[in-house]
Amino acid sequence: MGKAAKRKRKVSVPSTAKGPVKSAMAMVKSNPFEVKVNRQKFNILGRKTKNDVGLPGVSRSKAIKKRTQTLLKEYKEREKTNVFKDKRFGEYNTKISPEEKMIRRFTLERQKNYGKKNIYNLNEDEELTHYGQSLAEIEKMNDIIDSDSDTEERGTLSAELTAAHFGGGGGLLRKKASSGQQDEEEEKPKSRKELIEEMITKSKQEKQERQTQRESALELTEKLDNDWKEIQTLIARKTPKSEKKDKEVEKPKPDEYDMIVRELGFEMKAKPSERMKTEEELAKEEQARLQKLEADRLRRMHGLDEQANKKKPSHVSADDLADGFILDKDDRRLLSYKVRRIGLEVTSVKASSPTSCSKQDFCLVSFCFYFLVPESYETFKSLLAGRTIEQQLIILDRIQKCNHPSLAVGNKAKLEKLFGFLLEYIGELATLDLPELRTIDKLVLPLYNLCQMFPEAASDSIKFILRDAAHDMEELIEVKGRATLPGLDMLIYLKITSLLFPTSDFMHPVVTPAFMYMSQLLTKCRITTLQDVIKGLFICCLFLEYVSLSKRFVPELINFLLGVLHISLPKKRAQGYTVVHPFSPVGKNLELLLVCDKKDLESWQKQNLPLSIVTRLKETSRTEMNHIRLSCLALCFDLIKKCAALYESLPSFHEIMHPVRVLLTQHVPVNEYPEKMQEWYHSALKELENKVKQYTPLISEKKKPVPLKQYTPKIVKVLEFGRKQGGSKKEQERKQLIQRHKRELKGAIREIRKDNQFLARMQLSEIMERDSARKRKVKELLGSLSAQEGEWKAMKRKRGKN
After folding, report:
1. Residues 38, 40, 45, 47: is their CA dihedral positive or negative?
2. How far apart are CA 325 and CA 601, in angstroms?
3. pLDDT on residue 751
4. Do the strands 36-37 and 129-130 form a parallel or antiparallel pair, or are they unpaired?
5. How far lies 486's CA from each of 436, 453, 489, 520, in Å?
6. What is the percent of the chain where pLDDT is above 70?
7. Are 76 and 44 in contact (CB under 8 A)?
8. Rounded to whole angstroms, how far apart are CA atoms 283 and 279?
9. Helix (H) or strand (E) holding 54
10. How far apart are CA 349 and CA 363, in angstroms?
11. What pTM, to 2 d.p., does this model score?
12. Cα(644)–Cα(690) distance, rounded to whole angstroms?
């Protein structure tokens, strides 16, 4: 054991130790408790040892000193905010020029220094300056006189002046100067006056020399110019054009960039425009304009003069020459009427050209410009009664603009009621004997504008109409067992719904109920007349319009088209396919669209079916009825073609369209129809047959095969602990980065822990200091109180003795 200990001691301090170990050994002699020597079990050749010797005390003191200079300083100043404020006037104001900044700063500096430094010194005056120089220094007249004049001798005094004012001192000075010239040995310093005179003479002499040099240079240049002109006449010779062309050098073509830059220089610069007005401002301006027009109309109606309210011209005397009586232009004013056109623009119709104004324009003048929202539907109806379509649109537009929600508090509720009135008015126009479909078409625009302003009120009104219609249909089914298709007003409401609200939404509070209502119409309402067929085809068109974007499958649509084809066939051929409700394979109304008259078949031409034809079917002749039946059949072929194009992407497309294809290919008498009808038929059938079946066969999910058990030994590489395993360069770099990250993370955690401990010690020391100060103060107070109490007791004892 003793030998082993000696061997360890010898190994711990090798002879090849360098500077740190030697310095540590030197410190061991002075204070061995400050040094920590990290001993190694074995001395390995080639291994660099960095931390053989450590100084924990020194490093701890350095760390504490660094933390007191940084962390403790931040901790003490954690609630302090020091901000540098630049109080120079106008330093960050770009609107002020630098000259104004300097003048303002100078005035502020003068104001700061203004006032007497000592309030008791009455003789203290402000020092006046000129261009930064004190006026007191300028008045000493110490500046050198610089004279540019050639004739006058400023700064010198004549002999007469000196003799008159100074008693002939000038002569004595000249005598002394002449004697001084004779005696060169005796040199005296010159006076200030002599120096000034000498400087003046030198400057005049230099100026004279410069003038003579300039004149001589001018003379030489003139002489040289004259000589060159004489020589040039002898040398002058006109070069021929051929030589000029040879000598001419091609000018370099301008670069594209330079051309673009020059073009940009000539382009018009952007000019600032007026800001966009808000909706409230536009509404106020429109209301003010309509009120002014209404006031003008009332004034004209009562016969008031427009010039009566204007200020009369002041009296001008006859002697006044500037009376303005000049006939430079024709000041006569023509009679004009302010007319409100459909384009919402105010125009002028002059009386000098009566043919320029139509009867319609004069009719527009007859009603007022400012309207209030009607309180009831009867008032609204009377307001629009007897008006043309254009006048009704103008009235509705003025009602909206005069009662905009931004102009008053209750206008929103009034305009919401206006939407309901307008919707009811459209339904009433549709129920007339001759429905005014053109008027309804024009009224959709103000209805759309109101819907955009108040979407909630509009949706509530449409939902109320749909709810009532569905409820009426259910009551009819319960009472009579069957229901009929609705009137023209309900069909128009369904069309308006598609115009006002988005139909491609998956769920919509208005469109979804309308969708369900239309599907019930095509399944629950029996088809007994030709009017029902036309209404059903109109609903089918609406269905295609609703699902044009979402491509939602509607089975009621396909079934109804199949039924329409079924009722166009004779009874004996209605076999081989299934007909569903509202159509029946047997019964009375099985040949509603069957046309047997060959003359009617030959005279038929394709025509669109207007909705107004529903109300006029009773008045039509037999030939017209047959033509309408053929038009319905052509429309059915067109709808089948559109359905095929819409649903071609469905995987079950062929199964859905199979009954329709069977009916078209096996039962429809194509040869009996006219040529135009045959074209519609073949286009629909071609659209159905061109679609290829696209079925993906069902395939079971592929699974990885389970391997058989094998009894071969599994060889696992045994890794030696503590050794770095080999690998690629990227793997080694990645491992090094991971190791470095771990080391840095541990060091950061260690430093944070030490910082927290340091702050905790500082906080504890602050608390201990506060506690000790409080205890000291309490002790002092208790001592003073006990002393007072002793004195009081002593006084009390003295009083008791006395």
Report:
1. negative
2. 85
3. 94
4. unpaired
5. 18, 30, 8, 12
6. 73
7. no
8. 6
9. strand 53-54
10. 13
11. 0.49
12. 10
